[in-house]
Amino acid sequence: MPASQARLDRFGLAQLGVVYLVWGSTYLGIRLAVREGAGWPPFAMAGLRTLAAAAILLAWARLRGERVRVSRGELALLAPTGALLWLGGNGLVTLAEQRVDSGLAALLVAAMPIWAELIAIALDRRLPKWKTIGSVLIGFAGVAALCWPLLRGGTRADVLGVVALLAAPLFWALGSIWLQRRRPGLGVLAVSGWQQGLGALSLLAMSLALREPQPQPTGEAWLAWAYLVLFGSVLAFTSYMSAIRRLPYRVVATYTYANPVIAVFLGWLLLRESVTGWTLAGALLVVAGVAGVFQNRD
Asked: 89, 267, 97: which is closest to 177 by C-alpha?
């Protein structure tokens, strides 16, 4: 049995299932927390969310007897990966969802495995298969189809939101691959806690640098924030970290198939977000491109 298949243990797959379900719904939670009138500035919301989650995770790790003290070497790994994942990845998604529909955000982030494959190819210094190149081009054609309506007729804020969503999966892929290739010697809870805590510092620093207004969230926005802390940051991110340790990263990255489907459905059902021909065409192309990348990986 190939090594990649041998690592597909049941617990890792169960953790991946949690990521599928919960992270798909967090796009709706982010939208409810930061849309116009909700009262949460984006980086402040994301920073306080991850800071609260970090405190919970580190306390939980301590109660379980895990080592929570980090060495300088571990800190040198967790600080930049935390910033890539939470400021570059989640922070940019949160910024964009002030204007962009939650379903569209999820669909653009779904291109992340394509970025991951390109980064892996560059790091391994290998030539990609022609089928892989074709799959990447198909995936990016889907991204273009999703972006076109906003780029053509949207406001400047809409365009900036799209740019943020194009950059977010690149940062997330960089942080994930870096962490996978240089794993710290801490438990999953401690790694998640430290990464989110250090990521929170970068998010809050960005909030201060941008002089975001003082948060004044509505009741609905508070509930969305609490859901993002307990489910999106604690449960799903811990499951993600566990899955990444037990499964090949390209298998873990398949959560991008389920997330946009759940996000688009919830956005349409609860927020009446539109699903147009461009949305469907772009979604099919992105999924086809991602599927091709997985199928034709070296």
From this structure: 89
* Contact (Cβ atoms closer than 8 angstroms) between residue 93 and residue 219: no
Helix ranges restricted to H, the chain: 3-6, 10-34, 42-63, 72-82, 92-96, 102-109, 112-124, 130-153, 156-181, 188-209, 219-227, 237-246, 249-252, 255-271, 277-295
Residue 274: phi and psi, rounded to 5, are -75, 145
Tens digit of pLDDT for each residue in 128-140? 888 888 888 998 8
Residues whose CB falls within 8 Å of the CB of residue 10, separated by 6 or more in sequence, listed in order? none
Cα distances (Å, whole numbers) of residue 129 to 132, 142, 284, 295: 5, 20, 22, 11
Length of the chain counted residue by residue: 298
Interatomic CA distance for residues 5 and 159, integer angstroms: 42
In order of 115, 121, 140, 175, 293, the CA distances from 133 in angstroms are: 12, 11, 11, 23, 8
- pTM for the model stands at 0.85
Fill in the DSSP letter of residue 247: S
Question: Hunting for tokens 């109660």 — which residue is that?
Answer: 63
The DSSP output letter for 85 is: I
**For residue 120, pLDDT beyond 90:** no
Distance CA 246, CA 169 (A): 22
Long-range contacts for 206-215 (Cβ within 8 Å, ≥24 apart)? 206/43, 206/47, 206/87, 206/91, 207/41, 207/43, 207/44, 207/47, 210/43, 212/41, 212/42, 212/43, 212/44, 213/41, 215/39, 215/40, 215/41, 215/44, 215/45, 215/48
